Amino acid sequence: MPSAAEIEQLLEAVKDPEIPVISIRELGVLREVSVNNGEVEVTITPTYSGCPAMDFMRVEVEKTLKQAGIAHFSVKQVLSPAWTTDWISDSGRKKLLDFGIAPPPHSADIRALKGRSPVVACPLCGSTNTELLSQFGSTACKALYRCKACKEPFDLFKCH
Amino acid sequence: MKIEEALFRYALRMGDNSLVLGHRNSEWCGHGPVLEEDIAQANIALDLIGQARSYLTYAGEVEGKVRPSAPLRTEDDLAYLRGEREYLNVQLVELPKGDYARTIVRSFLFDAFHLPLQQALTTSSDERLKGIAEKAVKEVAYHLRHSSEWLVRFGDGTEESHRRAQEALDDLWRYTGELFAADEAEEVLAKAGVTPKLTDLHKEWSATVDRVLREATLKRPADGWMASGGKQGVHTEHLGPMLAEMQTLQRSYPGVEW
């Protein structure tokens, strides 16, 4: 029987279907793995209430566990404590940036908390001369920005 | 009314409000005035329908405890297999989407109520309502910011956009009273300290409305006759046709699994 840490490592293979470079662990969606008397319990939490990728990620977790020969498991979905972008790991933030998505401002950033536009660097050219086009981007978790330096539009992972 | 029965009705109400408004907003998908707004409305609808799923799932579970002999109802049963008289949403959310100014005004009037409500529910003594609120409150904050910004843009925009926003505001104002008129379920839960008193939320709603309308150069309508009935299942003529469309698959192929 693999340990909880080994299962977590195994679940590194489960990626966010909308941002396929980042794993659910790096995203903070994977909350906990516990092993009790040979029974594995995986706890996940949605990024947004209506996140359409949630069911997909649950199925991927189940598939990954089955393929590893784990027969007794359950996948539990919790809402509380609510997911926050602060849970995205440093490696996750780096991968977002490489993928062309500006990582979320930290919630400790007073501008983000107060709802004012945070300083956002363009993931393509690095310029901070950017502007918000829409609070709502290609998916529920992203906002649409435009870089005034390189003229390219890009997504920002919203502070949540 | 016993507290469990009140909780069932409350969870249903919260789910219905989000589901019906989410469905109305989703009608803009593919028809938005500009691409960014098309996407924004679809995203907001997705948030609301996600919240509705949590509430309706909970309502079904609570009902199972209240009426153990009745068959357990899932979120889908509650969304697709109830008629309009069984829907407990406020009438404001079921009205047709109208033009974009009307959609924005309706969303704003609801969002300005929804945010303090969800904020208050994050300290509810009911663990499930608390959990759903912790999630929803962050989403609703974005909704209110979005509708406020657009209301200012319309009100303080052109003569035409100002006129349309003011007309929508004057028309929709009579549907705002119901937001704060507690039914028996809401009274029972507020008394037990599970949910906030609706009258307490009115002050914050009113302050938000005044602040944004001032910036939008729009005039706050005087309180007059207020519509009610949605919370008791008595709806405007608009909810029935909306449900007929939303439930068309289940009505055409009863029991079909999607």
Describe the structure.
The complex is a heterodimer of chains A (160) and B (258). Chain A is α/β, with parallel strands linked by helices and 160 residues long. Chain A has two domains: 4-87, Fe-S cluster assembly (FSCA) (GMP Synthetase, Chain A, domain 3), CATH 3.30.300; 100-157, no CATH class. Chain A is 24% helix and 27% strand. Chain A has helices at residues 4-10, 24-27, 54-67, 90-98, 110-113; strands spanning 15-16, 19-23, 30-36, 39-44, 73-77, 101-102, 130-134, 142-147, 153-157. In chain A, the strands form three sheets. A four-stranded mixed sheet of chain A has the order 6-9-8-7. In chain A, strands 3-4-5 form a three-stranded mixed sheet. Chain A has a two-stranded antiparallel ribbon with strand order 1-2. The mean pLDDT of chain A is 89. Chain B is an all-alpha fold and 258 residues long. Chain B has a single domain (3-252), classed as Ferritin. Chain B has eleven helices and no strands. Chain B has helices spanning 3-26, 35-66, 75-80, 100-121, 127-155, 159-172, 177-180, 184-191, 198-215, 239-246, 248-252. The N and C termini of chain B lie far apart (36 Å). The mean pLDDT of chain B is 96. Classes of the chains: A alpha/beta (160), B mainly alpha (258).
